[in-house]
Amino acid sequence: MKESLFIPIFYVLWFFLILIFLTLLDLFLTLGLNFPINSNDIFQYVTSQVPHSAISVFVLATILSLFLCFLRILKKPGLKILSILLPFITSYLVFTFGFLTLNTYTREENKQIRAGLSSQIAPRRFNSRGEKAFYYNSISDNTMVNNILCDRQDKAQKIRYYPRAQVSFGSNAIAVLLTGEKNTNISFPRNANHSFILKSDYLSSFLSESFGYITNKLRALSGGNFNEYLLFCFAIIIFISSCGVFMRFTHWPLFNFLFALLVIFSFLFLLGFYEKEAMKELTKLTDDMVLLKNLPIIAMIIFGAIFFIIDFVFTPREFWQKDLESE
Amino acid sequence: MSNLSVNRVFPALFLSYTAGYIVLFIWTLFFPSAVVLPTFQLEAAFITSFILFIDFLIPIHCTGILIAYSLVIPSRRAGYKSIQISQFHKIVSPILVLFLFLTGVYTVTIIWFEPMAHQNLMEKESKTRIARVLHDKAKEAYNRENGPEARYYNKAALFVVSTYEEARKLEEKINNMNDNGREIPFNEKKEKLEEFQPRGEFTLDQLVDLAGRYMKNEDYYSAYYYADMALNIDGTNLKARTIANESLSKIRSIGLSEEEEKKRKYYKEKEEAYVALSNNNLIKAYYTFVDLKKQDPKDPDVIKYLDISRQQVSKIAFFKDEVADVAVLPGKEGILFINQNTKEAMEIIYIDKMVNIENNFYFKDLEVLKFLKNGYLLYHYKAPYGKYIYVAQKDENAPRHYININAIDRTDQSKNTKLQFYSGSLAGSDFKNIIQIKPNAVDMQYLSVERIPPRQMGFNELISFGLAKPFSNPQPIEEYGFSKREMDMEILLRCLYPFSFFILSLFSISAGWFFRSRYAIRPPIATLIIIPLFPIVTHFLVTLYHLVFRTVFGLTILTAGLEMSMIIGGCTQIVILMIALFILAGQAAE
Questions:
Q1: CB distance A196–B486 less than 8 Å?
Q2: I need a surface site. Which of B40, B49, B94, B508 has the fewest CB within 10 A?
Q3: If 0-12 CB within 10 Å is exposed, 13-18 middle and 19+ buried, where does residue B491 land?
Q4: CA-to-CA dists, residue B292 to B100, B222, B255, B287, B289, angstroms
Q5: Nearest-CA residue of chain A relative to B519?
């Protein structure tokens, strides 16, 4: 009983530690991607970026802290009903209201500083873009001075000199208009320059897209229908916290731990796949958009409920201790 | 006990490695990432799966350790009860030695073998691309019934890939063409140019002595040649002056002694060629001697001085036939770099293609552009061909890399290549046919529009670019106009991965032991079936671990530079290693 009552404290403590760590990490990443930032703006930039960073790692922090909670329950099970319900209730409250609070900060701090041009197109360097490369010496008032454009597709001349060029900033790209003997332009995606920091493989980028999908959906719902927001949070938390059942699935804890993670990752993977690919295909079968949009929520709640029931009725609670004691 | 743990961990690791490689090999066969000719396919599959295997080695290795320490070692037969608390160190210590050895092997692999594999794969892709283009051209020429052209391109394709099956088939078809087997020569052995002994390598006394000996032997041309060289060193040398005057008058008298008019003209031409050679008007001298050889192929003077003039010319020009096959041979394309950058002006060089033929580097379609920083374009021209020249210098700062852009025809002066000016001119420039360049030919291959990913670069190249001048700014690669951040990151990651390999091995022992199986013998079969999926989870966890370092090091590289990041990185790894060892030690009391 006493062990079970410590679960909320344990969860909240770990959640905040992990959240702080991941937020710092995301902040470092954002600073790196937008480097160099004017030193006068750094404090303002960091303070405005913290809620954004915290929100983007919120779901991952929840998953990791729930797993630590599961480990503790494995070693110190306490009362069965409480060890199932307390992580769920605590994480649900922290998740729902924590996200909501952070989201209000991000709305208030809407004026994020856009990184300087040099973080996207480096001065005094050849900035490669496919078979083209662009060089500029300096910039002043959106006018670039002493520019070189190399275009391997240009049959007449591969390199051209443009004394002046105009730069314009779009939301996703930066366009450079070069006027001279041959008028042309070249555009660069934002944050292209330091993308080497975040080079990840297919699997990891798909998972990060899934995290992004959940975060964006939560942000959208929190600004709209509050009941829908609560329902979505409920679905996510019930599913993740019910995955604790896999931690007691067999008497081989390593298998249980990795299998539980595999289930959650697979679900996130499927969620991303559903949003990107499967939903488009399903619209050919049914016009019910409400159903299609809510299908992942329904699936999460149903699976979560089933896992909870299995956990409550079938899984042994104290195999870890029994085996240790039997030695 | 010690042997028992090694005997149990090693097979688990071996099984994990083997299974991992087989899965990746099968994956590569079904989803090949390299675009290569069928003749390279199997080899490419082995190389690609090897690269993937090294990329996924840490998760595969950790999975093996996790299974070994959670399932294999704790089983009853392994003495589960007796090792439980007091003797935990006995199942860890011998394994640490094994892991240190494996870390060494892994380090060597990521530093040497993986980049080599990348380069090998790139070479195969490049050969495939070029061979296909040449084969298409050969097919097109064959369809037009142009036998010589078809033969030329097909031979070139087979030169690039000798086992190219389609080219072999086309070769048979071309050979059956009714054109008497006419062909354009491809990759014939070029005339080997003898090493020319530069003028500066003789001392004054040697030159005067040589001139005197030639004079004695009545070889007046050679006598004049060496006497003139001596006078170039010391114009007041009386003996050299006497030999020069006497030999010249003898040359003239020989000419006058011939009565026939055409002989007189011949000797006059010979004299002119000779004077041109002495006055360093080398191209004129060369073509005059070529002309004289046509008139009298047996004249020993002409044969001798044609050879000397050819050698002399090769210092200021090269023959077009040397570069005839550059267009069809594989090489590095799209080279671009800043050659000169002063406060006032900047020179940019673009080279469409660079080819290495018998350790000589040749270039095709070079563009040189120079502008003043006040916005005035000084010149922009294109040279059809170029040849890399290295001049050894005692002074470290003296320029030593050049590109000769003077491609001349071996026999016909009118066919010499000319510079095409888009803007400005080289009037007033000291270098009209020679471009002084900063990078050497080997470094140039990394200075391209489409950058070579640093992952595919050898550690030596990374170091030579990234750490060429430690703690200095800017680094060479930056002077050429390229960012070195990506290379810095790659250097740092290649230093980090061996640490990760060892540290994550330690963490895996701890995690495996912490999560050890509670089954007395073995878990249910159903659980074993899921095991092959474990590397997916460990891969994600390893990626997350590396992401932390990528993020932190990415920022430190940008803000503090590579050297400082390496110091920070080294300290961080030592701290994490200590933590891993503490956690491992803590498992003994678990």
A1: yes
A2: B94
A3: buried
A4: 74, 17, 14, 9, 5
A5: A251
Cα separation, A318 vs B191, in Å, equals 87
What residues form DSSP beta bridges with B346?
B341, B371
Residues B199-216 have a mean pLDDT of: 75
Contact between B523 and A252 using a beta-carbon 8 Å cutoff? yes
Report d(CA B113, CA B115) in Å as an integer. 6
Question: How many CB atoms within 10 Å of residue B57?
Answer: 21
Q: Which residue of A has its CA nearest to B381?
A: A157
The residues facing B336 across adjacent strands are B350
Residue of A148, A196, A200, A205 to mutate when probing chain B, most B C-beta within 10 A: A196
Contact A250 B527 (CB under 8 A): yes
> Which value does ipTM take for this structure?
0.84
Q: How do residues A53-112 score in pLDDT, each as one tens digit?
A: 899 899 999 999 999 998 888 888 777 788 888 889 999 999 999 999 888 887 655 445
The chain-wide mean pLDDT, for chain A, equals 83
* Alpha-carbon span B83 to B64, nearest angstrom: 20
Phi-psi region of B453 (alpha: psi -120 to 50; beta: other; left: phi over 0): beta
Q: Does A199 touch chain B (CB under 8 A)?
A: yes
Residue B369 host element (H or E): strand B360-372
CA distances to A282, B179, B345, B542 from B158, in Å? 52, 21, 46, 45
Spacing of C-alpha A294 from chain mean position: 21
Task: Name, in order, each residue with C-beta under 8 angstroms of B358's C-beta and a sequence gap of 6 or more.
Answer: none
Residues 6+ positions from A318 with CB-CB distance below 8 Å = A77
The pLDDT of B114-135, averaged and rounded, is 86
DSSP secondary structure letters along A120-189: TS-TTS-EEETTEEEEEEEEETTEEEEEEEEETT-SS-SEEEEEEEEEEE-SSEEEEEE-SSS-EEEEEE
CA atoms of B179 and A113, how far apart (whole Å):
73
Q: How far apart are the C-alpha atoms of B541 and B553, rounded to whole Å?
A: 19
Q: Please state the rounded mean pLDDT for residues B537-557.
A: 88
Tokens (6 digits) for A99: 């996200």
Given an 8 Å threshold on Cβ–Cβ distance, is B375 in contact with A323?
no
So where are chain B's domains? 199-321, 331-450
Containing B341, the helix (H) or strand (E) segment is strand B332-341
The DSSP bridge pattern shows strands B318-319 and B407-408 to be parallel
| B224 Cβ contact partners less than 8 Å away, ≥ 6 residues apart | B211, B243, B244, B247, B248, B251, B274, B278
